[in-house]
Amino acid sequence: MKITWLGHSGFRLEIENAVILIDPWLSGNPMFPEDRRADAISGATHVLLTHGHGDHVGDTISIARELGIPVVGIYDLISSWQTHQEIEGIGFNKGGTVDLGGAKVTMVNASHSSSMEGNEGPVYAGHESGYMIAGEGHVIYVSGDTDIMADMDWMGDYHKPDIGILCAGGHFTMDMKRAAYAAKRYFDFRTVIPCHYRTFPLLEQNADALRAGLPGVDVIEPEVLEPITV
């Protein structure tokens, strides 16, 4: 299994028989070298979205059209795109599980917001979400954009993820200290990978506080387009 950071909250996840692009904001992303776009999307089988904000939706529709692959996510947004953007989609909702090339992807709660830019301001884009992705003997918790929430208690107990991909940049989401608190209190991770940081000066620039708060956990600060093999 390979986990490759695409900058900000974007990841390329190679698991089972799937290559899943998670929140692929490539064009205009300060962290992503646009001349490496082909490398990032090569062989992708699905796009998985946590919510509708532009720094997560990013290149989703163009990638889906270019590669002829489905976009997977909250039913409201996906069904709208299937009608108006004429893309293939797999829409589901919290508590639901879909099979993506042998990887079992379950949608779970997040605490954030979800909208897209409209002509007269923000437009509803379905609820924000996170995912538990099970495959190859691991369960990965992709938090999406969220703060600490009590739901993490049952999510950790029920799904028992050993890998956490956690938003931790602060201002719009948990910061490093809060992410460390959530990980320590609610989960039993072996590996934690921070995201939604370093992109802008407003966000946290390193994971020192996350690492300090999680002794015994392998906290990996990812580098863009450098695969992490698990």
TrEMBL record:
Keywords: Hydrolase. InterPro entries: Metallo-B-lactamas (IPR001279), RibonucZ/Hydroxyglut_hydro (IPR036866), UPF0173 (IPR022877), UPF0173_UPF0282_UlaG_hydrolase (IPR050114). It comes from the Bacteria. It holds the Pfam family Lactamase_B_2. GO terms for molecular function: hydrolase activity. Residues 7-196 form the Metallo-beta-lactamase domain. SMART domains: Lactamase_B. HAMAP family: UPF0173. Belongs to the UPF0173 family. This is UPF0173 metal-dependent hydrolase ACFOMH_03760. It comes from Paracoccus mangrovi. The lineage of its organism: Bacteria, Pseudomonadati, Pseudomonadota, Alphaproteobacteria, Rhodobacterales.
